[in-house]
Every structure is written in C-alpha cells, then in structure tokens.
Amino acid sequence: MRAIVTVIGKDRVGIIAAICSVLAKNGVNVLDISQTVLQEYFTMMMLVDLSGCEKTFAELTRVLNEEGEREGLSVRIQREDIFKAMHRI
Amino acid sequence: MINIGEILQTIEMIDQQNLDIRTITMGISLRDCSHPDIKKSCDKIYDKITTLAGRLVETGEEIEREFGIPIVNKRISVTPLALVAESSDGDDFVPFALALERAAKEVGVNFIGGFSALVHKGFTKGDRKLIASIPEALARTERVCSSVNVATTRAGINMDAVRLMGETILKCAHATSEAGGIACAKLVVFANAVEDNPFMAGAFHGTGEPECVINVGVSGPGVVHMALKSCAGEPFDVVAETIKKTAFKITRMGQLVAREASKRLGVPFGVVDLSLAPTPAIGDSVADILEEMGLESVGTHGTTAALALLNDAVKKGGVMASGHVGGLSGAFIPVSEDAGMIRAVNRGSLSIDKLEAMTCVCSVGLDMIAVPGDTPAGTISAIIADEAAIGVINNKTTAVRIIPVPGKTVGDSVDFGGLLGKASVMPVNQFSSDAFISRGGRIPAPLNSLRN
User: Does this complex have an ipTM over 0.90?
Assistant: First the structure.
C-alpha cells in the first residue's frame, strides 16, 4: 500500500531527518519527496511504500502523530488513493 | 505523480472547508423477517440487522483513518416496516420501532430509517397500523426515522393519506412537546420517494433493492462556497463551471469511500448520492453559496435561479465522478440545519412561500421548518399537498419535514441539538385549508404520467 505523508510546520533544521527516522524505524520506504517553504512554513510531502511496515496503519499514524507533537509539526498520513481519486480522471 | 499543490488542496478542503463523507448507509432487506408472532418478527429483525451491520461503524472508522477524510455518520436503512410488520398479529407496531432502536444502539449507528409505509395509491391494513404507531414509535425512540410516501407521478396524490399525515405530524409534536416536538424531525412525508436514499430522516431500503447494499452520501457546501469566492464578479458560465469541477472532486471522494466500504464489508455498492447537505456548522451552508453568487440574503428575488444553477451544476459535475449515482442527488435546504438559512429567516428574507418555490428546482422539499404549535392539522396537510403536487407534476422527489413546535409561536426559536440544528418558528398562512383537505380521495395522476 502506498501513502502520502504531509508535514507542515515552522521551518528549522532537522525536520526531514526526524520524520524519516521514524519511517525508517518502521520499515517504511520513501519513494519520493517534495518540499517547499511558503512564507516561513515548511511544507513537505512524501510518497511512501508501506509494504515492508509491520505496524498497522492506525499504529503508524499514531507514532507519526506523536513525533509531530514532539517536534511541533502537523504530520499526517493518508492513503495515496484519496488524492488520485480527487485529482486524476 | 500527485503534486504538492493538489495534496494541499485536498487537505485544505477537509480541514478548513468541512469536506466530509456525510454518511455511509447500509441498506438491509427485512423482507424475510415477517412472522405471525410479533415478538418473533422483532427478534428476527434485531438479529438480521446486528449480524449484517455489526462491522459497519468499525469499518467506517478504519476508512476514515486511512484516507484521512471524516465520515460523519454511519447509518442503516431497512425495508419499509409496514411491509414486514403486516403479517404479524396485533394492532400496535411500536414494538418494531423498539426492535430497530435496540439494533441501532447495539451496532452503534446514530439513525436507522425505514419505519415507513408507501401509500401513494391507498392503504393496506398494515400501512394504517404503522402510521397510527408513528407518534409513539418516534417519541419512545431516539434513532428510528420514519417516512410515508403519499404521492407519485404515476399514481397521483392520496389525499386521504395527506390528511392523515397532517394529523400524525401534530400528534408527533404533542408526543414530544417537552423536547420541542422533536419526533417531527424524524418524520418525512414524501412524494416520489426514492428507494436508495442514504440520507435521513427519509431513508428506507426499497423493494427493488438487493439483500444488503452500501450507499454513500457526500457533502461539501463549504468547498463549493470557497471555490466560488475565487470567481467573484464573473459571469454565470464561470460560476457553473467552477461548481461542476468542485462537485466532481467531492463526488470522487464519495465513490472511493463507497467502493472501499463495499469491499471491506463484502456488500455490493449501490449508489453515491450527490447531494450538497449542509450542517449547522459555520462554513457548511448552502445559503452561503447562494449569497456568494450575489444575493444579499437568501430568499430574496433571484434565489430560485441561483439554486437551480447550483443544483444542476452539482449533478453535472458529480455524475461523471461516480459509477452509479442515485438517491436524492441535489442540493438540500433543511432550514434548521443550515446556519445561513436560519440567519435569513431571522432577518425576514426567507419565507415558507419562497422555500416552496425553491423546492421546484432542488432536492428535496420543505425540510426542517418550524411552525407555530397551534397550526391546524388541515394547514399542515395542505402544505404537504402543495409539495406533493410540485413533485408529482415535475417528476421529482419532494418532501415535507415540518415541526409544529408545541407552545411556540412566530419568532420563537427551538434547538433540536446536534445535526438537527436550531430553528426559528416561521409564520404560515392564516386562512384555512380545512374544507379542501377534508374532501379526501385521490388527486389523479397527471397527464405526464402516461408515458408509454
């Protein structure tokens, strides 16, 4: 299953590292990253592959949210299908 | 590859513009639950619902988590109960409503629809018993919803049923007088009712439907409103295009969730209902969309045209986004459930007469309207007759969900809580319709029913 991780928060050093280490720890493979800074807000999206992840979707969501809270970031993970359905015919 | 702008747009729609899946509704046939012994029939109903819908709420929540889109309601619709209950002994059908309530509580859904009868051409014995049981059934339950179909384009209008429903609505109000007549908020009187509507209070599982089915209702007035803000001052061609594109995106969410729910529950997918359904939340209003088009306040001249455009564009955009479109599919205008509509009533720009005109061009009808508690039954029946006539002549579904609020008069307000919202009591015409309603009989099917 593929999913999109979005991270939004105040820009500073180490955001990508923090999120990626959580993903790596859980066997989630990052397929693509795109990021931008709008005003001072850091916005990142990652396309990830969950096939090697041993946690359930709900558990992975929880650990990502916890990491987000620790780092002061809004982190969410959603299945890729929702974006494809909305934006592609 | 999806780009970052598209991802942010989706997230913004969900986070800031109240985009949600309004309901996943499981339709369940109860046709095999009849039994001469009323208690056995109720047990069969309870067992069947709790078996088939046992995982409905859990599955809805799973999908919600994985896709990151709120699914506000998980609900159940069942075969019109009059059909199931008819073979049972006894005159009182309230035990069936209590069985539905218990089943709904057990599986955790907030509404169960189908305490219903279809009487557009006449009553069976079971239909009469069911309608007589409605006031007590709705007063003694929280989650059970009831509907009665009194007219179709093919059959005309059953004016005996129209008269009976006016009286029944008053009884419902009295039976729940300490709660503002809330039973009336769970009772819909239809013309041309549809068999696959996922929205409450009018949902039932029609006789042409399969054993079990998943229907999904989407929503998103806030998203359409926001999209229209970007085309201020543009001509209507641009407005219509913008609504179509937005409706497409909203409906694709519904289609995705419907397919996913159907797969996980092992139940066939029925339809996506393309209705724009408001909630009392700020920024989730159909009235706001109409005002964004340039009306100072909903209900003023131009409102019907604005609503016609909105309703049509939503369907055009939505229909390509889903494999099967059905249900009511149109913009809803439930007054108490739409903050913008309530605002318009309070400042005197929106009347029942204008709402009636609006129902000619949208789904569904005079919905969640509070009127004075001393409104005569004949007047309520006449309001139903007018709506039924609009539906029958125009080949569309219309409905009346009206609450004569006990002890309240014009200008008072009543709070039903939650999704049902808060209503201001609106004036009705003071001249009598009693002699008209007391005629009874049937208004014949119109010429346009003869289509073969």
Answer: no
Q: Is A56 on the interface with B (CB under 8 A)?
A: no
| CB contact set of B233 (below 8 Å; sequence gap of 6+) | none
Q: Among candidates B313, B203, B321, which has minimal Cα distance to B257? A: B321
- Nearest-CA residue of chain B relative to A84? B2
Asked if CATH classification 3.40.50.1820 holds for the domain at A2-86, the reply, yes or no, is no
Could you tell me which residues come within 8 angstroms of residue A88 by beta carbon, excluding any fewer than 6 positions away?
B2
Q: What is the pLDDT of residue B190?
A: 98
Cβ–Cβ contact A76 with B under 8 A: yes
Strands (E), B250-386: 269-273, 325-326, 366-372
Contact B6 A84 (CB under 8 A): no
Residue of A45, A47, A81 with shortest CB distance to B256: A81
For B123-169, write each residue's pLDDT tens digit: 999 999 999 999 999 999 999 999 999 999 999 999 999 999 999 99
Give this prediction's pTM. 0.93
pLDDT digit string (tens) for B181-206? 999 999 999 999 999 999 999 999 99
